[in-house]
Structure formats: C-alpha cells, structure tokens
Hints:
The structure is a homodimer. By secondary structure, chain A is an alpha+beta fold. Chain A is built from seven helices and 15 strands. Chain A folds into two domains: 158 residues, HIT family, subunit A; 160 residues, HIT family, subunit A, CATH 3.30.428. Chains A and B meet through strand 2, strand 8, helix 2, helix 3 and helix 6 of A and strand 2, strand 8, helix 2, helix 3 and helix 6 of B.
Amino acid sequence: MSEIRRDxxxxxxxxxxxxxxxxxxxxxxxxxxDSASSCPFxxxxxxxxxxxxxxxRMEAERPDEWHVRVFPNRTPILQTEVAxxxxxxxxxxxxxxxxAHEVVVHGREHTSHLSEFTRGxxxxxxxxYRDRMADLSGDRRLHYVMVHYDRGRRAxxxxxxxxxxxxxxxxxxxxxxxxxxGARSYYLxxxxxxxxxxxxxxxxxxxxxVVENEFYAAFCPFASxxxxxxxxxxxxxxxxxxxQTDTQLEHLAxxxxxxxxxxxxxxxxxxxxxxxxxxxxxxxxxDNWRSVPQDFHWHMEFIPRxxxxxxxxxxxxxHINPVAPEKAAxxxxxxx
Amino acid sequence: MSEIRRDxxxxxxxxxxxxxxxxxxxxxxxxxxDSASSCPFxxxxxxxxxxxxxxxRMEAERPDEWHVRVFPNRTPILQTEVAxxxxxxxxxxxxxxxxAHEVVVHGREHTSHLSEFTRGxxxxxxxxYRDRMADLSGDRRLHYVMVHYDRGRRAxxxxxxxxxxxxxxxxxxxxxxxxxxGARSYYLxxxxxxxxxxxxxxxxxxxxxVVENEFYAAFCPFASxxxxxxxxxxxxxxxxxxxQTDTQLEHLAxxxxxxxxxxxxxxxxxxxxxxxxxxxxxxxxxDNWRSVPQDFHWHMEFIPRxxxxxxxxxxxxxHINPVAPEKAAxxxxxxx
Lengths: 336, 336
C-alpha cells in the first residue's frame, strides 16, 4: 500500500508508492507511440481505461457520444478504499495513501488545439471539474481537491490528447496553504479579501488586465512568476469553485477560451499549465479552514512554460521573470 | 531598472526585469549552436564573458590554466550597484533589483561527465562556492546566497559545459524559509536540531543511507519528493557552509563524487539538479535569523529529473513519488 509521508523538517507531505513501480522502465513516461489508434483517451478505446465516473452524455441515449469523460487513473497511487491510519516512527510521520486520482479527457480529437474547442466543449470540462470536486468533497477525510490541466511535454503532458487531472488528498498542498495563510493574515488586519482588493486595484489601473466579462476577470499578476502568467477570478467574492451554476460556467468558458486564444496567438501554442485553486473541502473533518469562505477567493492560474530554467525556480521559491506583467498584458490584450 | 516585487497574497518575492528582455526571441533559451568553439565557458573564449571574480589559479603564474572560474552573469537581473528603496503602491510592494547573479564554470571540457572529474576539480568548485558566498555575505543588504548546479535540458541547463549559478538576494527564498521555519519550530520544542535528529535516525536505521565518511553523510530522505533524491549533510552540526575548511572540502568532494557516480550508474546520467541550502547571511541587517546557528543545518539536495510531470508538483507543493527512498538507497548503495 502506498504511503503519505511527512517531511520532518518542512512538514510538507509526499505520496510514496513503493509497490506500484519498482523498476526504472516506468520513467520514460512519455509514450513512444502517441497516435490516435493506441491512445487510451480516444473514442473507441474506452476499454483501455477504467469505466467512466462522469460524461457530458451521462443521461443521453448515446453515452458513447461523449465530448468530455472522467475516469479513475489506471494505477492509482491514492485510493479512497483505505483507512488513514496516521502513525509515527521516531521522527518520521506517515499515513496510508488515502485520496483519489482521476483523469478528465477533453474532446474526441487526439491532437486538438484549444482554439478549436467550442465554448460548449470547454464548459463541459468546467462542469466535469465542478461535479467531480463536489462528489469527492463528500468524503470528509479528503481535505483538498486539486485540478490541473497540462499541455505539451515541457508542462509534463504524457499524451497529445487533451486531458486534465483531479487529485484529492487528505492534506492541503503547500502552494495552496501558502495562499490561504497569506489571505488569512490580510483578512485579520483589513477584514477584507486580499484577492478582492487586488482585483479592484487591477480593474482600476487597467495596465495588467487581460479580459473581463460580467462574472469573471483575468489579469497578469503584479508578481508574475513566469512570463505571461494569467490569473482568472470571479468578480464576486466566492471561495469555492463548486458553487458555480451551469450558466456561470458558460461565461467562465468564454473567459477561458479568450485567455487560451490570446496566449496561443502571442506565444504560438506554448506548453501550458493551468491550476484551479479552490478552497479546501469545507465539509472536511477539521475546522482548520473555518474562516475560508470570507478570506479565500477561488481562481485559475494559467502558466505558459516558456523558460527551460523554470524547474529550479519552482523548487527554490525565488523566481526571476524577464517579462514584466504590464508588457505581457499589453501583448495579450492586443487583438490578433 | 529591474524590480523585486512581493506577491500581495502569498508574500513571496519575484524578480522582474522589464527592461532587459522585451521580445520573445529571448525564450528559446537553449542555444542552437552548443559547440565548444562558440561556448562562452570554454577556455580561450573568456573574452565572451565578464572578467573572472575567482579562479582556482588566482595566485598562479598562468591564470589562464584555470579549472574553475567564476564571473558575473552577462545580463544581470540583480545588481549590487543599486539601493533597495522599498516602496508600496496600493496593495503592491516592491524594491529595486538588488542582488547578484554569478556563473561558476566547472572544468575546461565542453562536454564532460561528472564521473570524469577528478576529486581536486570537484573540490575547487566547492571552494569557489564557499569563497563567493563569503564575499557576497559581506554585503549586509543581501540576506541569502543560493547556489545551484543543473545538468541537462530537463533540469534547465542552457549549455552542455558544466556550470553552477550563484544568486544573492535581499530576501530568503520560500523553500529555504520553509526549512528554517520547520527547523525553528522543532528546536523550540526539543532544543535540538531537527537535521541532527534525522541524521542520527538515518544512521541508526541504515535503510536509506547512501554513503558516509568521517565528516559527511548522505541518504535518500524519508519523504523524498523525487525518485533517487539524495541529501548530503555534515555529520557535525553546522549551519553555515562558508565555515568549511579546505581539508573538509576535500572530504566533501569525495562524497559529492561518490553520490554523482552512484546516481549516474543507476539512472544513466539523468538530468540533475543540485541545490546548496546554507543558512541565511548571518551578517545581514535584520536579526530575523538569530537562532539559526543552533537550529539550521546546511545541506546539499541532489534531485535527478527523471519524471516529466515534476513541474506541476513543484508548483503545487504536493509530490507523488513512485519510488520509495528505501529502494532508491538500496540501488545507490549497490556497488557498480
């Protein structure tokens, strides 16, 4: 059984899967043969993956006509079928590999470009995120559900077929905890959400704005870690992504499509990473995050992977960004 | 002038260099022509770089016979010639791009393998780290000096010629601050260094040990974030790398050589990242880190880049590692 281990120095958590992989042949994680005929994400190859947990045609007469489907990872390192069983051994703390790991397939085409997706297809993916997050949050042992989309080898994508991953864990990941702590510290002084204050200022200044509509706004953040980093937020204060209605998600799809099109126009379809940062599971056992509905604000971070040296910087936590976000936003705003 | 900006939510710092790069041609950071004749790090091409700040032949009659040389980065984003000038503008905090960015060239050969380096050449590189860190720490405005070595494209190396980078900043990078905070919390309860306690337990258990000699020991950490991650520590408690003597650095070179040879034997010369985590600059203006000599322990982290998906995990701070450190250590200990 896999374990979730706590580093005794930093207290960060790491999932370790001793029994699943014990030889090095696992490492070439990119498939040599990445063609539609062998692709487990292509229509007709559904038997190569576990059964669907969600599709956009769940209720339809022809469920095989899905545009978006979600299924569990074939070799899950984290599983809901185990007890947490937290233990200590000397200075070392660990627990069983409780959690979930799911794959969201976007679209029926093996090699597709975000610019070719219809707004409806993007909206279906956003509904998949919401519905799966809500379902996984029903397990009170799971404190966080991460959602991320990766495109291109440099962003770590294993296949050309567009997909996202959903990972649910009994621990809040360090990057989100950093945001939660910062947002709470700000709230304790100001009694306002720091994301709301930042958005107000960005809308007022305008120099870093990328796109906005009635419900959502996107800008290049003041301290962008990567060139052309874009954050997307709901304009109304909301901590939890799962509260979005279908109608709101249609508007969100419009914003996501606009950001993706702009990034691709300016940077020529770069490797791309998108992470959805929602609140921790508010139904979870602990009341650690009780104040979150007031002080945290869900958002999406779009990070084009244009610099080779990024790996080091993400590890050490000090970033050097050669493109000012004001210049990036200006380029992204320019119609193409 | 470049700026160091504070993210208003997480309070992490990012260096932004608006004026140095303003077009996208910067991004293909890997040189198309990476041959010895055009390599700025090869002997004979010294005129392509700024003048040496340090060489292992500084005092010699033939200084051009260097094996290791250090010089400032040609387009420095951080510079010591500026005043900090911290400012706020609404919710946004920033300061001038104070700091330093230097390059350490290891060896005279353009394409060389760590296994081909003599112990003396490795020791010269370790002395270069120490001497430059000590020199930069004389500037009381600089709170941290980072040192890292990267090999291979996947680790972000721009050239085949082996090199390290030294980056001095007025802020402690987030990853080190995380370690400092964890180590201090532990010390406040136990009145012992957490690194010393971990090392004692690793030596006692033996299952994760990789190599040791009189002064240094290396093991695969309990919560390894990456397959075959290795940490190297001095056995005696020491917070500051710059306190190493030349004799100690000969022993350290032996340990580094042994780790590199083992990693290359098991993984076949993978892309590799090494980060040296020393204490913050204890001469710096702030007394924030006053307790560091007791509770922090310098170390080197060796991280082979064998998984494509690593970028996401380093960003979000929740790692999934398919190889247990006990298995990795066993493979690394096996003689090759």
